[in-house]
Amino acid sequence: MCAQVFSHSDVSAEQDRRLVVMDVDSTLIDEEVIDMLGEEAGIGERVAAITERAMRGELDFDAALHERVALLEGMDASVLDTVYDRCHFTRGALDLVRTCHERGWKVGVVSGGFHEIADRLVADAGIDFCTANSLEIHDGVLTGRLVGDIVTKQTKLHSLRLWAERMGIDMAHTVAIGDGANDIPMIQAAGVGIAFCAKPKTQQAAPHVLNERDLMRVFDIVDEQ
């Protein structure tokens, strides 16, 4: 799991410090990991249809996640390596993280996806904090179940607030970016909330909308605030 380690240097009253928190699937990366796992299981269309409805806010996200994960029962855990190798960072994602760090900001990700993929993406990008779900694996095989608490829309919001508090950053200086209905609470709570190439419900709820698939355009919005 991603280590959440905070040093004394993280805590600062400087007004130009910010915390940027974003979703992973279809935001940090171009793909939806659960859909790719479904493809590897030969049930891609079935899984993708559930994902789409959940992200539009038409299905309860928790129930939809459990339903999709259950369909993966019996898959060899090596499929996670295959899916990770197929992931692509969204255009501008790595530059966004680099630029944030150059400015002395921190970056976190909150994902309804899985630590087994997210942790590797976080390491690749040099992201500071991570919250995600964990798949249950027994004897090298996916059991079709999750381990621990499920990452919900409230979990995402809590992570944003928790990291900001621990870093001594006012919520007014936070940025939240996401595309799905489960990102809405954190988008609305952040100082700058951005719907990124998002579902209609998310765009309608967000203070800011970015429909160009380039995460560096986030700064066009943030720097105007």
From TrEMBL:
Belongs to the HAD-like hydrolase superfamily. SerB family. It comes from the Bacteria. One of its GO terms (biological process) is L-serine biosynthetic process. One of its GO terms (molecular function) is magnesium ion binding. InterPro entries: HAD-like_SerB, HAD-like_sf, HAD_sf, PSP. The keyword Metal-binding applies. It catalyses: O-phospho-L-serine + H2O = L-serine + phosphate; O-phospho-D-serine + H2O = D-serine + phosphate. Pathway: Amino-acid biosynthesis; L-serine biosynthesis; L-serine from 3-phospho-D-glycerate: step 3/3. Keywords: Amino-acid biosynthesis, Hydrolase, Magnesium, Metal-binding, Serine biosynthesis. Its EC number is 3.1.3.3. It holds the Pfam family HAD. It is an enzyme of class 3 (hydrolase). It comes from Bifidobacterium primatium. This is phosphoserine phosphatase. One of its GO terms (cellular component) is cytoplasm. Its cofactor is Mg(2+). The active site is at D23 (nucleophile), D25 (proton donor). The keyword Hydrolase applies.
